[in-house]
Design brief:
Blueprint lengths: L2 E2 L21 H26 L12 H8 L3 H7 L12 E2 L7 E4 L2 E10 L4 H14 L3 E4 L2 E4 L10 E4 L4 E4 L3 E6 L20 H10 L12 E2 L1 E4 L3 E4 L13 H7 L6 H20 L5 H4 L2 H9 L4
Parallel strand pairs: 4-9
Antiparallel strand pairs: 1-10, 2-12, 3-4, 4-11, 5-8, 6-7, 11-12
Length: about 300
Amino acid sequence: MAKSRTTPQRPAPKSVAARQGRPTGLFTWIAVGLVIVVVAALVIIKVAASSSPTTAKPFQATDATTASEVTSVPASIFNTVGVTSPAVGVTPPTATKAQPVLTATSGGKKLPEVFYDGAEYCPYCAAQRWSTIVALSRFGTWSGLGNTSSSPSDFYPSTQTFTFLRAHFHSTYLAFVGVEELGNVIDPVTGNYPPLQTPTALERTLMQKYDNTTYFPGIKPLSIPFISFANQYLIAGATYSPAVLSGLTRSQIASSLATASSPVTQAIVASANLQTAALCTLTKNKPASVCSSPGVKAAKTSMHLK
């Protein structure tokens, strides 16, 4: 369940052939000159308009109620769900072997880095953000989350989710770096989704090294979403199907996280518990209240972790 970084292309509009003529007389030449000036002005206006991100939706901050619901899932929900998700399968992060730990400096401390790369149009990124936000919320706090949805013309159209475009994660245990490469509305001029953020050269090298068939057999290289948990665990593609979120509003999904029997909650929380188990290996099982909880212990058992 992954999305290629290749953006859909639309055929370029056919150019209109200019009519050829041979004007005669002074007034005719003046008229032609005026037409040229007017056309040139219109072209300049058109170019200026098309160069601005007219298709990019303005940033919409997530409301406080929804943000609280997604970042404050009760411990009882984590422990009741564990890794059980009957309605839709959930895949754990993939472990690497003998890889250097990816770190970032945050608050003057060098911390294990969680690196995310995705795009707003991507429905699999839309699903994955829910569980990753929930998992990381157990190690710190979020600010700057925004609302978005996947492309209305892609698989699982308009899946409600969040964007990391302006998000910040504050933690004494982990650092988070998120990159949203593309928006979710196709620019009719270019036929592409508008660019939002660009990975650094080091981030691109990281993706080329880990986001491929060596770690994910059968997947298209450089698929999204891609997440590196300090290079010790990896995710490429959503850990559960966006189908479980289909047709639901952001508010409905967030509020359901208080109900352990909800199929939506089971998919999101089971994935979050598995990601938490991986994260606990990076934090040396801190905080203990999280890493020793029954839900995380169930995830550790399924992943053969201590």
